[in-house]
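If you are new to this repository, start here. Below is one unmodified record pulled from the training split, so you can see the exact layout before writing a loader.
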Amino acid sequence: MPEIFIPIPVAAVAAGLYAGWLIWVIFVRHRIAANRDAAQTERMLQAADRAALPPNPIEDQIAAAGLSLSSTTFSLVRLACAGAGLVIALAFRLPVLIFIAAAGAGWLAPIAWLNQRKQARELSIDDDLPAALSGLAATLAMSQNLSEALQSAAEAVSPPGTDTPRLLAIELQQTAAIIASGGDLAAALLDLQKRSPSPTLAMLAFNLRVYATSGGGKFTRQVIDTASRVRHMLEGRKRAKAFAGSANSIVLMIIGLTVILAILAFQDPSFAAFYRSTTGAIVILAVAGVMALGYWFMRGLIEDVG
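And here is the target side for that same chain:
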């Protein structure tokens, strides 16, 4: 009976994918199914967010990430990263396909970093928004002064004298200071809406702008009620994200396990020689593409929960 020979690269990739599939079936899929109901508040809140958000060009994305860069400068950064990818691929004498892929990855990397930074700022703001909304509603119940209401909301998040104020407190204090100094109220709230990394804060700024331009008064109760509903939804969102956090860690572990197996197998000379060939480059790109698609698919399922 002829002996069956399985190439080391194929065995390594198959083992990594099989291990990832097992982890997905045993841990991730059941956790997602168990927590899908907890995501209802997230979807409700996002539906309301989209109606309030302005167009989101690259300048707004950069501002939401907390960076003071022009779109031209950011494009130059992307070009530099693409060039760095080319240099690294050239230094390792990798095939042409990997050479092109490295340049593409370098071009896209700053966008991924920008989105990650924006998301981190969004999570920071959303964590503090329930306290801020409580302070905002309490002040508006007594006074229609939006500057005072925003200042109270900021102090509910970071009390006066705090060494390192929270991001939300800084944003609210900046807007309150502009209004208190006689600046255009609608313009200050519009600026807050545009630079906000959090759709929920952008929605709040939009509602306050409508409240201010309509003259306030009889709309005070509606603003307070809206703030209360958003606060409850944010608290539900926070619980859902806590449930989904461990599932996201498992997804990253699947990718890490596959990469580690590939690095260990690369120590074999025949493995290394194969992946420096054109055929090997195609295999690398195919496996990386499948991993990327799988990651974004799993990430999308997890974000439906948290």
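Two things worth knowing about this chain: The chain has two domains: 1-52+236-306, 58-215. Residues 220-265 form the longest helix (46 residues).
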